[in-house]
Amino acid sequence: MDLAAATTGVHGSVAAIGYGLAAIGPAIGIGLVFAAYINSTARQPESAGLTRTYLFLGFVLVEALALFGIAFGFVWAK
Amino acid sequence: MSGQSSVLAAGGLPWPPSVDDFFLPGYFYPWITKFTVMVWIAAAVVMVFFLVSYRKPKLVPTKAQWIAESIYSFGRNGISGDVIGHEGIKFAPYITTLLTFIGVMNVMAIVPFFQIAPTAHIGFPAALALISWVLYIWVGIRKHGVRRYFKNMTMPSGAPMWLMPLLIPLEFLSNFIVRPFTLAIRLFANMFAGHFILLVFTLGGVVLLGSSTIAIKPISVVSWAMDIVLTFLELLVALLQAYVFAILNAVYLQTSLTEEH
C-alpha cells in the first residue's frame, strides 16, 4: 500500500477494489435470476405469482456473496 | 481521503463518527444504547398496533383491523402456507412476527431522527438468526428424531455412497453453519450498506458545497437529489429484506420438516 501510494499518489483502502471484484459474480447471478423470471412471466403470465417466491429466494441466495464482500471489507480492512 | 475528512471536520460535523455515538449519555452509559431503545420502540409499535387494531374485532372490519388482518394473512397464507405447506400454519405467528418486527426496525433507517435501522448493527440480526437456527434444528429433531434428522440434512438421497465423504461435510457446512451466518449477514449488510449509501450522498453534497471552486458548488444539489431517490430505494430494500428474512425462515423450516431432501 505504502509503495503504491508513494509511486502513484493513489491512496485509500484496497478493500474497495476487493469489493468491486467480489460484486461481479453476484451481479451476473442476479442478472440471470431476473432474466429467467422475466422470461417465464412473458411465456406464461399466470405463473408470475407462483414463481415470485423462488425469484426472491434465488435473488437473496445469490446476493449473499456480495454482502459478504461488504462485511468482510470492513472486517479485514486493517 | 484525509482531505475530505478535514473538510467535514471544518464544517463542524462530528467527524468521523465513532462507537461512542451509539451510546446514550449519562446514567445508562454502557448498558443501554440508542439501538436498544429503538428495538424497544419497534417492539412496542408492533404490539400496540396489533392489540389496538384487534381489540374489538368486527365482522365488517375497520380500516386498522383490515390492515392487521391483511398483514397476518400474508404471513400465514402467503409465506407459511405457500412455502412450508399445510404443516406450516402453526409457524404463522413466528413468521409474521419476524415480518412485522424486522419490517418496523428496517423502516427506521429512513424515519427522521432515527435515521439508522437497529438491524444495521450486527448484534440484532445475529440474535434473530440464532433464534431461527435453534428453531429449525429443534423442529427437525422433534419431527424425525436426532439420527434421521441429521441423516436427512447431511446425506442427500440418491447420491452414491462413494460421494458421501465429500457430501456430508459440505451439506453440514451449508445447512448448519452457512445458513444462520448468511441469514444474519444478509439483513445486517443490506441495512448497513443502505445507511452507508445515504451517508455517502449526504456528505458528498456537503463536501461539494464546501469546495473552493465556485463551479463545483451547485453539483451538491445533484448529490442531495440522489439522496431523495435513494431514500425510496431504501424503503423498498427495508420491506424486501423483512420479507426475505421471513421467507428464508419458512424455507429452512420446510427443509427440516420434509421427509426426503
UniProtKB/TrEMBL annotation, chain A:
Family in the record: Belongs to the ATPase C chain family.
Sites annotated Reversibly protonated during proton transport: E63
Gene3D superfamilies per the UniProt record, alphabetical: F1F0 ATP synthase subunit C (1.20.20.10)
Superkingdom of this protein's organism: Bacteria
Organism listed in the record: Rugosimonospora acidiphila
Protein location: Cell membrane; Membrane
Domain named V-ATPase proteolipid subunit C-like: residues: 15-75
Stored SUPFAM superfamilies: F1F0 ATP synthase subunit C
The protein's name in its UniProt record: ATP synthase subunit c
CDD domains: ATP-synt_Fo_c
Keyword Lipid biosynthesis recorded: no
Lineage summary: Bacteria, Bacillati, Actinomycetota, Actinomycetes, Micromonosporales
TrEMBL record, chain B:
InterPro entries attached to this UniProt entry: ATP_synth_F0_asu (IPR000568), ATP_synth_F0_asu_AS (IPR023011), ATP_synth_F0_asu_bact/mt (IPR045083), F0_ATP_A_sf (IPR035908)
PROSITE patterns to which the protein is assigned, alphabetical: ATPASE_A
Transmembrane spans: 31-54, 94-116, 122-141, 193-216, 228-252
CDD domains given in the database record: ATP-synt_Fo_a_6
Subcellular compartments: Cell membrane; Membrane
Keyword annotations of the record: ATP synthesis, Cell membrane, CF(0), Hydrogen ion transport, Ion transport, Membrane, Transmembrane, Transmembrane helix, Transport
Keyword Iron part of the UniProt annotation: no
Membrane topology category: Multi-pass membrane protein
Principal location listed in the UniProt entry: membrane
Domain of life (superkingdom): Bacteria
Family: Belongs to the ATPase A chain family.
HAMAP family: ATP_synth_a_bact
Purpose: Key component of the proton channel; it plays a direct role in the translocation of protons across the membrane.
Protein name: ATP synthase subunit a
Organism whose genome encodes this protein: Rugosimonospora acidiphila
Top-level taxonomy: Bacteria, Bacillati, Actinomycetota, Actinomycetes, Micromonosporales
Name of the gene: atpB
